[in-house]
Structures are given as C-alpha cells and as structure tokens.
Design goal:
236 residues
Amino acid sequence: MTENNNQSDSSQDLEPKNKLTTTLLASPEGRLLLTGVTIAFIYTLWLAVMLLVSPQDSQIFVALTATQVMFGRAAAMAFGYSVGLSHFVVIPISMIIETILVLIFFPLFIFSWRHLLVVNWLKNIFERIQKTAEARKPLVRKYGIIGLFAFVWFPFWMTGPFVGSVIGFMLGLRLWLNITVVLSGTYVAIIGWAIFLRQIHKSVASYSSYAAMVLMALLVIIFITANLLHKTLKEN
C-alpha cells in the first residue's frame, strides 16, 4: 500500500515536469534553443576532431572561441589575425560562435521572462540585459527593423546580437524575423570588423612581430575597463 502511494506521488511530481518539458520543446523558442544546442554540439565535435587531426590548430581554435565568449568578437578576431589565421577561418568561426550564443541565451531569456524556466546563475545577467534593452528600445523603435539592424551592426558599447534580440522581443517582432534581422546585422558587423582588424594587423605587423598581440591585449583591456566603468557608473 505504501509503495503504491509512493509511486503515485512520484508520478504526480513527474507530470508537471514532463508537461513543462513538452511545452518548452513545442514552443518556437524551444525549437530555437534546440537549434542552438545542436549547432553547439556540432561545433564542439568539430573541435574534438581537430584535436585529433591537428592538435596545434585545435588549441588556437579553442583559444579563439574562449576569447570571443569572454571578451567579444573584436578581441577574438584580433587574436585570430595575430596568430596568422585568414579571413576564411576567422570570419566563419566568429559567425558560428555569435549564432550559438544568440540561439541558446535568447530563448533562455524568454523562458526566464515568462517564468517558465529560471536559471539562477543567469538571472542577474538577464536583468542587466533587460534594463539595457529597455533603455535603448525607444531609439530602435523609432526606425523599426532598420533601427534594430543598425543597433546590432554599430560597434557601440552594450550593442550586440543578444541585447538586440531582446529589444526585438520587446518590440513584438515575430521570433524568426527578430533572429533573422539580428543575425544579419551581426554577420555584417563581423565582416566589417574583419576588414578593419586585418588592415590594422597589416599596418602594425610592419613595425614588430609582437605588435598584433599587443593590439589584441589592448582590446581586451579596453573591454574590461569599459565593463568596469559601465558597472561603476550604473551603481553610482
């Protein structure tokens, strides 16, 4: 009798979880998240294969990925050019990483917004992103989709695909239209950064072989300083 009661209780506990999982996976945001996770898995698998085929190149690609996740596309692309990678390597990798970040974290933001799925360690980040998006939403709304594209494209502080996608969500854009505009602006921005950084790399490399690495270090320092300054001004 007791075992039957325990089984019924456990089944009742599982029902809401199964229903929540089914709801998340059936929603457009859930499918977007699955797409992002699938691309991330394929990319990770490619890195693992590269580790077996060419360990030295694999280390560079892992460092490039980590740099972009932590410090942004400009620092990562500068690093890529400083170690001798070409446009045909730096640009696609940067696009893939940005796509993965948007397709994973944007659906998680929506789930958190709707209180369907709250990830505690992301909660504070999402709150900051939400406040930033709300502050910049009137400017983007004025120009509509073109404004959203430009917002993601221009290299201003706290502009980028994730904040842009949140603004598009707040403006009521359809999910796939929002993602299409945001990623299009991101890809154009990456190509612009590639042309600019490659030209800078050629210029500074003529002075010293270490100049390119110094440039990347400066970009990282600028990112960290701007982040700390932004946080300090916000707190004050």
